Amino acid sequence: MAEGLYERIYAAVKRIPEGRVATYGQIAAMIGIPRGARQVGYAMAALGRGRPRPDIPWHRVVNAKGESSIGGEQISRLQAEGVVFGTNGRIDLKLFGWDGIEEAE
DNA sequence: ATCCTGACTGTTC
DNA sequence: AGAACAGCCAGGA
Question: How far apart are CA A38 and CA A25, in angstroms?
């Protein structure tokens, strides 16, 4: 181990099934860091900085309100996966929110 | 090596 | 309902 904390975050993000979205706080909680939502956001930001972008579906990570914190490409990608945005630009976490459990195929 | 910035959340008033 | 406070890690200059 001795992996960076970000590595764990990226791993959790990769677990998000297609067509579903997870919140920053949810990712943080599932890897064991309460109140670590910010760290998750930082990790995502680090992806677009200088870090290479592996196959991390960062676009599937949204804020607690169910909307994209950055918008732009993120929203386009989510819609391409079938995620529907409300009139206010928010997603129904009850419908697209990921429970942290991958659906069996 | 140090300082600054960056894609958040829940609680309380 | 809107605003403020506190907690957290890594990378770039």
Answer: 8
